[in-house]
């Protein structure tokens, strides 16, 4: 097996180096690159075959299966039924209907057609380029060599043979197997190669594919592993990194049989030659032993023939060491003596060595030697000059010391050279590629070490990025993985890269480097920031992320002050501020910046028109046209759908817009593709006329159907060449056409393990669970993300019907959009909320075609991402639209292969995007935090809001993977672990509740079960937040939360900022009947505890849970106060709050509180009035009282009981 020959760690190092090389070479890294596995053979195959061989892989290499086109070559007699099976899924003459053959086959080509229509070379070449994959009936394989010709075989496009005589089901399985395997052709020569993975896979999957591919490839080679000389891994634009090196074939040495006297050893340079010259001829040479260090005796092996090239010459008169002393017995391993007795003999073969040993005989070029003269030296790290020694010490790097023969020998832990035969440390080409000096050349004089650990950085808090952009869960990071594990705290950063992009906030400083080019690290590609260190009198800067020293361009050079900082620091925002925006040059663009595009897909079915959704959406869109970003380049299109898809010709030359209806949903086409997406300024009159007449145009539509899938396909074809923002308005479950969904709601599954399936997207199922594939909506969302299309989904069912939000939410989640949900939508009740949120979605600042990458100091890594995004590569977040509401949570972990050695750790987030005006920008946020080996210091610096945010988002993932019960258990156990770590943490000083370790043998202080655990001041609210999360609508048990409501809550929670999470976890409760007089500036009244003890029937209370506002009116409240605050709608009897009259009346005070709460939320907070005793809405209000008992497993504790439970188990 490959695992016995390949070192998994070595393959992982090579993959990591290649991925890092890929990041440095490609700024956007949007297209996947192929990993090629090359195997070098000792002997070429005797019988090569052009037939492709399939090698199974654990992970699929290609993710574009839906876009690949295949061609099947068969006999003439089999073409009719195969073509019918391809088109309609029915075999002619069959009694039963077969399933449609859709495994990537787009054409069935008969053998006679291939023979007559593709005679010319250009025709065969066009056929080769028209399709991605070729398959053929195994019965026609012998005839294809002449019919296909040289063009197919040179490009390795030989068809894969399948057996079509076994029936459609067997053929489908064969095609599916062929698509999931790697293809290998054993050709002439000693090199065999295949594509084993792409950069779309993560690091672990690439390593597993490489090992499996190597195993399968070697099994096809004669003599298997005995014939393998080397195995390398590479990318198209990278060097080949060896991962295996075999033993070479044993050569034979020849000596003539004629007798001759033994040859005398050669004299050292500068001495006279010996008197007796050796006879001419070939003689066997013994292997040369490694030279011993200076001052030590050489090893007892064959006598040395002279000093090696480059070794220091012995002083005149000194006898060179030629072998063992006189009278000493020759060593047992000495070679046979030269002379007549020496005949044919076998030179012992060199033992197989790992690829790291190959680099033991290589050096890294460090430049030419210094000229002779007085001692000179580079400036020291502090800026002063140091003298160079008279004889430069040889260089040692990563376990290798210079040998006398010009190579490197392994060193002992103490630094001395290890004895011969000692195991060599791992020094692979992957290390060299990732190292600062990665070029391989001839041996040269050694210079300074290649890399140095980053020194401790003096953290200037005034230069940190704003906390609203980036917040870490702790303000002091643990220095080791052991400290992080002991603290039990989640380590992570919540990043909101465009948080302050609004009119009231000052914009970020924009820096244009001009002809100098953007200054960034050449190794890790981090951007220059205020926390880099300037060395060599300002000629170099040391990266605070990786520690690499970079040269400063001449046009960017500036002198340093007495503190070692640049004198122009205050004049350059990138050197004085932690958040800055850089103007991106042309190399950061895959294509020219596209104009902002807005496409509106509106459901015009009967329920949507009757509820008023069409009317509210059309009127709001018309009001926002003047405020759409990007004028005058903005482009707009409108698509409506019910049981058909309706396009609208908005060409400026038309007097009024015209509607084009496409009823065929199976083969949807786009009529007049050039007149559907129009410029807003040029076609403004046509667009206004359409939006005014849209509700009346479909008011008489009797169709209750909704073909959302076909509408998404239509929008995909209209805007796919440009990208932009797609706003979808849906009122019911998609029930016809492509991607129709079924009603999966099962009330009996609520509160059981089966509820988890309702929270997952509906998937396409095969014969077995292993054949389950991703849903249609997930596939389409990934394609939207690739084409830079972001989806804003507005779901407004007029009733409480099921709409399968778990599946529909994939559209905004993968495309970095947002989900809006309006259950039981009514234009009177929800028009204000829909209008406000749609206006915000259309007019807020937006970054188009965005990608984001986060870099951490060496020793730390990003282990997980959370939020709305799609990962391309392994760490690049693809964001078609990035807005101020885009929030991403990053979990940080310690890297086991590279420990954290710096005294401060840096986290840098870079967002590359296109502004609405068409300018490419790079937004850089840099956060630097100190490190500490003390668990108490780390816990005392915790930010409880960020900790709760990370715990909530981790619980969302646990809910979808393991279910609600498992998520609640993990959250509760995590809280107990943190409390236990705080109570039993060992700290040398008392920091926030941490005292000195207890004396051994001393009795522990007794604690009552109700005694609160010892927690730092920063974590005092953590148990309360954890208990409140358990009882929230996202994770609470029971049957009172429907599947759509829970799916919406989970989706919103996954994209919340810490400030919003705080109010969602522990809502704020205010007593409106006891509001104090208004103050200037405004201040919120003190909130009440979330317990029934805080509520009485004679009061009126306002509750804010960050998603909506609820006012509970007690049955015994003051009638006069109720009359002054509320009014009743005579049409439907709905109770509403009166408008603000101004002044300092109770109504004015309540209106000011509500207005200030809405200012703090990006989404509109709708206000709902709930009367005491309401059987439907009062339970919703009371379930927010999290300090009381709840009737589901895990929620039966009150706050005091939960604290006692945590204290007892901690």
Description of the molecule:
There is one protein chain. The chain is of the alpha+beta class. Helices cover 26% and strands 19% of the residues. It contains 32 helices and 45 strands. A hairpin with a 4-residue loop joins β41 (1100-1104) and β42 (1109-1113). The longest helix is centred in the C-terminal third of the chain and has 21 residues, at 964-984. It starts with a helix and ends with a helix. The model is unreliable at 89-100, 252-457 and 986-1013 (pLDDT under 50).
Strand content: 15-25%
Give the assembly state of these chains.
single chain
Stretches where pLDDT is under 50 for at least 5 consecutive residues are 89-100, 252-457, 986-1013
Measure the end-to-end span.
Answer: 47 Å
- In helices, the fraction of residues equals 25-40%
Please outline the major beta sheet: 8 strands, mixed
Query: What gyration radius follows from the Cα positions, in whole Å?
Result: 37 Å
- Give the averaged pLDDT, no decimals: 78
Instruction: Supply the helix-strand structural class.
Output: alpha+beta
Shape: globular
Query: What is the number of helical segments per DSSP (H or I, 4+ residues)?
Result: 32
Total number of strands? 45
């Amino acid at each position: 097996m490959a695992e016995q020959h390949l070192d998994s760690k070595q393959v992982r190092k090579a993959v990591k180096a290649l991925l890092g090389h890929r990041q440095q070479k490609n700024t956007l890294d949007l297209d996947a690159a192929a990993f090629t596995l090359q195997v070098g053979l000792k002997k070429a195959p005797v019988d090569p075959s052009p037939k492709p061989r399939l090698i199974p892989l654990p992970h699929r290499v290609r993710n574009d299966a839906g876009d690949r086109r295949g061609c099947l070559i068969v006999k003439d007699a089999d073409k009719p039924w195969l073509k019918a099976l391809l088109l309609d899924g029915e075999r002619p003459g069959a009694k039963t209907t077969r399933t449609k053959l859709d495994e990537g086959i787009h054409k069935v080509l008969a053998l006679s057609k291939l023979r007559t229509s593709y005679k010319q070379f250009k025709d065969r070449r066009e056929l080769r380029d028209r399709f991605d994959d070729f398959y053929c009936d195994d019965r026609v394989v012998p005839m294809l060599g002449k019919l296909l010709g040289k063009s197919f075989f040179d490009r390795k496009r030989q068809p894969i043979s399948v057996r079509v005589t076994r029936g459609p089901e067997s053929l489908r399985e064969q095609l599916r197997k062929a698509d999931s395997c790697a293809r290998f052709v054993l050709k002439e020569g000693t090199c065999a190669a295949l594509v084993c993975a792409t950069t779309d896979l993560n690091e672990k999957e690439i390593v597993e594919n490489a090992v499996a591919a190597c195993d399968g490839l070697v099994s096809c080679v004669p003599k298997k592993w005995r014939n393998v000389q080397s195995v390398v891994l590479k990318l198209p634009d990278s060097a080949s990194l060896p991962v295996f090196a075999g033993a070479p074939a044993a050569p034979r040495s020849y000596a003539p049989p004629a007798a001759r006297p033994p040859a005398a050893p050669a004299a050292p340079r500068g001495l006279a030659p010996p008197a007796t010259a050796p006879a001419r001829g070939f003689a066997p040479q013994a292997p040369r032993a490694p030279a011993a260090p200076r001052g030590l005796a050489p090893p007892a092996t064959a006598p040395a023939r002279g000093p090696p090239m480059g070794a220091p010459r012995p002083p005149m008169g000194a006898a060179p060491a030629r072998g063992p002393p006189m009278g000493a017995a020759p060593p047992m391993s000495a070679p046979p003596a030269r002379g007549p007795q020496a005949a044919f003999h076998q030179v012992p073969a060199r033992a197989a060595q790992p690829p790291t040993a190959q680099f033991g005989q290589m050096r890294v070029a460090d430049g030419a030697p210094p000229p002779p003269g007085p001692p000179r030296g580079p400036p020291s790290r502090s800026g002063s000059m140091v003298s160079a020694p008279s004889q430069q010490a040889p260089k040692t790097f990563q376990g290798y010391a210079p040998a006398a023969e010009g190579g490197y020998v392994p060193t002992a832990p103490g630094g001395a050279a290890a004895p011969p035969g000692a195991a060599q440390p791992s020094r692979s080409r992957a290390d060299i590629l990732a190292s600062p000096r990665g070029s391989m050349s001839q041996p040269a004089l050694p210079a300074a070490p290649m890399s140095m650990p980053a020194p401790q950085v003096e953290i200037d808090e005034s230069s940190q990025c704003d906390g609203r952009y980036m917040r870490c869960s702790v303000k002091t990071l643990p220095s080791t993985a052991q400290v992080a594990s002991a603290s039990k705290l989640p380590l992570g950063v919540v990043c909101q890269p465009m948080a302050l992009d609004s009119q009231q906030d000052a914009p970020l400083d924009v820096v244009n480097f001009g002809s100098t080019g953007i200054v960034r690290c050449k190794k890790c590609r981090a951007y220059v920031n205020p926390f880099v260190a300037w060395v060599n009198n300002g000629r170099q800067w040391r990266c605070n992320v990786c520690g690499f020293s970079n040269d400063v361009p001449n046009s960017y050079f500036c002198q340093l002050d007495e503190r070692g900082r640049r004198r122009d620091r205050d004049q350059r925002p990138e050197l004085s501020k932690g958040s800055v925006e850089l103007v991106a040059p042309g190399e950061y663009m895959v294509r020219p910046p596209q104009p902002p595009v807005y496409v509106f897909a509106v459901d015009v079915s009967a329920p949507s028109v009757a509820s008023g959704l069409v009317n509210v959406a059309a009127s709001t869109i018309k009001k926002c046209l003047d405020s759409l970003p990007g004028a005058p380049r903005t482009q707009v299109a409108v698509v409506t759908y019910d049981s058909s898809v309706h396009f609208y010709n908005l060409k400026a030359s038309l007097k009024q817009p015209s509607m084009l209806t496409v009823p065929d949903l199976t083969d949807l086409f786009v009529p007049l593709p050039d007149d559907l997406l129009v410029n807003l300024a040029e076609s403004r009159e046509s667009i206004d006329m359409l939006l005014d007449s849209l509700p009346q145009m479909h008011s008489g539509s009797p169709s209750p159907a909704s073909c959302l899938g076909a509408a998404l396909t239509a929008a995909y074809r209209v805007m796919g060449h440009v990208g932009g923002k797609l706003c979808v308005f849906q009122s019911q479950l998609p029930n016809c056409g492509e991607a129709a969904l079924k009603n999966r709601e099962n009330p009996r599954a609520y509160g059981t393990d089966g509820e988890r399936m309702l929270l997952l997207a509906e998937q396409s199922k095969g014969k077995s669970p292993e054949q389950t594939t991703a849903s249609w909506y997930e596939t389409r969302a990934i394609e939207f993300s690739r084409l830079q299309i972001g989806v804003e989904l507005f779901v407004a069912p007029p009733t409480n019907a099921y709409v399968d939000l778990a599946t529909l939410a994939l559209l905004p989640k993968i495309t970095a959009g947002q989900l809006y949900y309006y259950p039981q939508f009514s234009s009177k009740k929800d028009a204000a909320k829909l209008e406000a949120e749609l206006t915000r979605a259309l007019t807020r600042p937006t970054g188009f075609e965005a990608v984001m990458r986060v870099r951490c100091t060496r020793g730390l890594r990003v282990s997980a991402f959370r939020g709305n995004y799609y990962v391309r590569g392994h760490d690049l977040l693809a964001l078609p639209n990035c807005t101020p509401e885009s929030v991403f949570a990053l979990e940080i972990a310690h890297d086991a292969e590279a420990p954290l050695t710096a005294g401060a750790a840096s986290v840098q987030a870079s967002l590359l995007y296109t502004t609405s005006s068409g300018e490419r920008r790079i937004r850089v946020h840099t956060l630097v935090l100190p490190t500490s080996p003390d668990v108490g210091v780390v816990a005392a610096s915790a930010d409880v809001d960020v900790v709760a945010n990370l715990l909530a988002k981790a619980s969302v993932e646990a809910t979808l993977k393991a279910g609600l019960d498992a998520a609640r258990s993990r959250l509760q156990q995590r809280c107990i672990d943190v409390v236990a770590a705080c109570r039993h943490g060992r700290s040398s000083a008392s920091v926030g509740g941490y005292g000195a370790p207890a004396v051994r043998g001393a009795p522990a202080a007794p604690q009552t079960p109700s005694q609160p655990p010892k927690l730092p001041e920063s974590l005092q609210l953590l148990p309360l937040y954890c208990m409140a999360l358990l009882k929230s609508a996202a994770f609470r048990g029971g049957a009172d939360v429907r599947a759509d409501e829970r799916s919406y809550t989970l989706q919103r929670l996954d994209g919340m900022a810490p400030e919003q999470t705080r109010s969602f976890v522990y809502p704020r409760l205010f007593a409106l009947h006891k509001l104090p007089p208004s103050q200037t500036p405004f201040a919120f009244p003190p909130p009440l505890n979330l317990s029934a003890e805080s509520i009485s029937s004679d009061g009126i209370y306002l509750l804010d849970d960050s998603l909506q506002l609820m006012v509970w009116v007690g049955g015994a409240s003051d009638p006069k106060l109720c009359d002054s605050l509320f009014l009743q709608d005579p049409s439907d009897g709905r109770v509403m709050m009166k408008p603000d009259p101004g002044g300092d009346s109770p109504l004015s005070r309540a209106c000011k509180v509500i207005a200030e709460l809405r200012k703090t939320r990006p989404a509109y907070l709708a206000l709902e009035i709930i009367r005491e005793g309401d059987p439907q809405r009062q339970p919703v209000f009371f379930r927010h009282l999290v300090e009381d008992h709840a009737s589901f497993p895990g929620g039966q504790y009150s706050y005091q009981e939960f604290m006692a439970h945590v204290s007892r188990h901690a």
